[in-house]
Design goal:
heterodimer; A: 8 strands; 9% helix; B: alpha+beta; Alpha-Beta Plaits; Ubiquitin-like (UB roll); 4 domains; 5-stranded antiparallel sheet; 9 helices; 22 strands; 26% helix
């Protein structure tokens, strides 16, 4: 894949360029994870590959090209499907590990 | 959310616990296989979650592969409920039967009520409606109430409007009776006054028309007294509505016959009641169908059962049998005379109530075992009667 350089000179993906040019939301592309967080109570992650670690105060999920780590208290998997995960409980932090 | 909960309830859910082994691997497997898993949380060191009853077996199999020990904690939902009560098949059949019964029964008419009838009898209306198909036990979807309403208006006599309403299994028939036009000669149409009875006129009051007879004249029944046809000196005739009060002295005979030998019903005082249960129009006799011995009069009656003022489709017919014996009765001459006298008084009271009886002579005679009382009446009474004059004009107006 050919990579373009933007004005600032940083690397930018083709998909991101297309989405910027045509005003298409990024989540339309399949290999992008989308995370919706409602206060510190609920988090919905769309587009994930699997669970790496699961406990009541730490959940690590493998997303696209990165790992997402939730820490908190009494974390519950509200819903689990192939693509989406919903986590409820008291979320302390969300970390993205590339 | 409610739909999801309902679907989960219908399919049955299982709450299970999972302990040890590779939890993450198990969850990834579950997700990959598209199995349902929700509300997974750690409670007292063990994971607990929910899944559908059918999918639990597959999850348990996967768990064994991952070295996770699973255990069912709770079972919820309809399949488990049915399983629990599967031995009580009768109860389910009963519930289903009741529901089915109600579904079927609401398609029938169980009650027909008539309102608004004053002169018409309820029986007449009901029997006419029955001919049109509206009766107890009739299958409702087969009836076209609009058409029946229209037909009923023409079938029922003496009715100006009929409404057939239905609500559930009840049908009520509303009736507006037509007002019968009084049978009088209209004051505008021409008429004569004629004699109703033979007699001698004692008083004549003419309000309209031309008198043909005078006071003191004798008229026979049907004779013209006051004419509605008036002739003026030029020979032109005009038709009028004659009106007059004609009083006359009349003489006529009346015979009262009393046979000396007669048959008379004498009730023995013995009564018997037989009941017939009315169930949705089905008549179930509550007695053995044997013929009653002896002679009797039957008085039928019907008692509708009602609950809190609502008529139920059940009722009870009661036939009351009153036994009697025919007894021959023999009058003595004196008794027969008394009986005849009684009849005479009855006649005078009813037929001669407007007349003034001036004189009466009675004769008694015995003939062929009968006592004949002949009374010669001389009365003072009104004998005028209107008689319409039919003209071509009047006929034209009528048609």
């Amino acid at each position: 894949m050919r990579k373009k350089r933007n004005e600032k000179g940083t690397k930018q993906g083709l998909k991101s360029a297309v989405s910027k040019t045509f005003d298409i939301p990024m989540e339309t592309f399949s290999n992008v994870s989308q995370l919706d967080i409602l206060s510190n109570k609920e988090a919905l992650l769309e587009g994930c590959k699997g669970i790496l670690e699961y406990d009541d105060n730490i959940i690590r999920i493998s997303g696209h090209k990165m790992e997402i780590k939730f820490t908190g208290e009494g974390l519950t998997l509200k819903c689990l499907t192939t693509e989406n995960i919903m986590i409820t409980g008291k979320i302390w932090s969300v970390e993205f590990i590339a | 959310m409610f739909t999801i909960k309902l679907l989960r309830f219908l399919r049955g859910t299982v709450r299970f616990s999972a302990q040890g082994g590779a939890m993450e691997r198990l969850m990834n497997l579950i997700a990959q296989h598209g199995l349902n898993l929700w509300d997974m949380a750690k409670v007292n060191g063990a994971f607990q979650g929910f899944t559908l009853a059918k999918e639990y077996k597959r999850i348990a199999k996967m768990a064994r592969k991952c070295g996770v020990r699973t255990k069912v904690l709770e079972r919820h939902g309809l399949p488990f409920f049915l399983r629990k009560y599967r031995r009580r098949l009768g109860a389910f059949i009963g519930i289903a039967a009741v529901v089915l019964f109600l579904f079927i029964m609401q398609n029938f008419i169980w009650n027909v009520e008539v309102s608004g009838n004053k002169n018409l009898s309820e029986e007449y209306v009901l029997s006419t409606m029955e001919k049109l198909g509206v009766h107890k036990g009739a299958f409702k979807p087969a009836l076209d109430f609009k058409a029946i309403e229209i037909e009923a208006r023409s079938k029922l006599e003496g009715v100006s409007w009929v409404g057939v309403n239905q609500s559930g299994s009840k049908v009520w028939i509303e009736i507006r009776e037509s007002v019968k036009a009084p049978d009088i000669v209209p004051t505008t149409s021409p008429c004569n006054i004629v004699a109703r009875r033979t007699g001698q006129i004692t008083k004549l009051q003419i309000f309209a028309g031309q008198g043909v007879v005078q006071k003191g004249d004798v008229v026979e029944e049907g004779d013209l007294i006051v004419s509605g046809i008036i002739e003026d000196p030029n020979g032109n005739t005009t038709l009028r509505h004659a009106s007059a009060k004609v009083y006359a002295t009349t003489q006529f005979d009346m015979q009262f016959k009393i046979p000396l030998k007669s048959q008379k019903k004498e009730y023995t005082g013995e009564t018997k009641k037989r009941y017939i249960l009315d169930l949705f129009g089905l008549k179930l006799p509550l007695f053995l169908a044997t013929k009653q011995a002896g002679t009797y009069d039957v008085t039928p009656s019907y008692q509708k059962l009602n609950l809190f003022g609502v008529d139920l489709p059940f009722g009870l017919y009661t036939n009351e049998y009153k036994f009697y014996q025919m007894k021959s009765q023999e009058f003595t001459d004196k008794q027969a005379a008394e009986e005849a006298e009684k009849q005479r008084k009855e006649y005078e009271k009813n037929e001669l109530k407007d007349a003034e009886i001036l004189d009466q002579k009675s004769e008694k005679d015995l003939k062929n075992g009968e006592l004949i009382l002949t009374v010669h009446y001389t009365c003072q009474e009104e004998i005028g009667k209107m008689q319409e004059i039919y003209t071509n004009d009047a006929e034209n107006q009528k048609s």
